[in-house]
Amino acid sequence: MANGIIKRGIANIKYVLLSQFSYYIVTFFTSFILPGVLGVVPNGYYQIYFFYTTSFVGLMHIGFNDGVFLKYGGYDFEKLPQELFRTFMRMYICMNGIETVAVLLIVLMEPNANKQFAFTFAAFDIVAINLSTLLNYINQATGRIKLYSFVVVAEKVQIVAGLAVMLLLHHIDFHAVIVLDFAAKVVVLFVNVYCCRDLFWGERVPWRAAWGPYWDNIRVGVKLMIANVMAMLVMGAGKLMMERLGSVANFSEYSFATNVTNIAMAFISAVGLVLYPVLCRLEKKTLPYYFQRINRLLCAFIFTMMLLYYPLVPIIRVFLPKYDAVLAYLPLLFPIVIMQSKMQLLINNYYESLREEKAMMWANISAVGLFVAIALPLYLWHPSVMVIVWVTLGVFFWRCYASELFLKHKLGIHSMRNMVEEWGMGALFILANSLLGWGPGLAVYAAAVAVYLLVYRKELVPAMRTMLKSAFDR
Question: Residue 129: which of 185, 88, 183, 177 has the closest Cα?
């Protein structure tokens, strides 16, 4: 039974890969083409819009999305209480509409006209993003990964097509890019609503009867939402400090650097979407076994993906020389890929499947508190991007491995060998690229990756064969 569940989960990965291919195309445009075309400061205004829409707009569901995801993970779509959900949707849209109006009133107080433009469209995104995210969560929780992937691809195709037209017409600025992004989200929302129309039209329960279950979803999900918010703030707090206390140019450069590292994490994040419904269907006694197996595969993939750093360096130097300042701290950001990927794919999913949202929340709150306590006074004393980078690296280390130790204790796993290996690979990457330079650093790190893959080949090769067979047989 467990093998069948795992194989069905693996089969869904091919649809996730399709959505991630479209993500990579958009990321290429927004991370490499736009910064060069727009310039440092105009790109900074677009990055402000992007930062707030991806970080803070998602808070406006106040935990409802996460509650639905937790309570209905593992359901079939047809077995959802659809009459109840139809009332939920009306209540949810009203709540987000009220929040949009409130945020727009706050935005009017922003003195910078360009920032006000970015904030205004971020406010408009509240309904579009949150309702579409809720429907995506439902599709993920009920195993409709193919539909989820289609919706993601549809949004990315619109953005790529729009950016390509702007570039061909030689008429592109950050205002047009923001409007394009918003329009793509609205179109995708309508597509998503149509594909989930059974949750909107038909018989529904009265508002009074739905009120209790609606707030119960918020009660269940608010801990997970706070945990996710705190996780976002571990990286986002540094950006927020620079956006509020630093220059738009520094914010633009730092955002560019973090976007580059996100390329390596994108695939991991998407596969994580498939994992939670799979874990919900497994017997609890098998969870420790799969924790160690998934961790080994994940580390092999992450260590290999970090080799992306080496072609990115000459690309930045040749095609984006205005951003070459990021090369001073880019080697410090890439090891964050190890820890963030583990959090998104493995640790967060195990927190949720074990229903340890409270522990997850406190782990992330402690990480943000530690970041602010250290980074804020240091940044005020010495306003440098390096301060943010070093503190971010340390806090990510604390959050990831404190969480892993907690979960291993809950699962009865006593081995720490994998953690020592991960620390060693991360330290080797930083030291090799900081002390030896690009060429020797590539040789040393690539050799270390090859040794790691060779040592664990007997474990990795059969697992990869199983994954590929399950993916292509369905």
Answer: 185
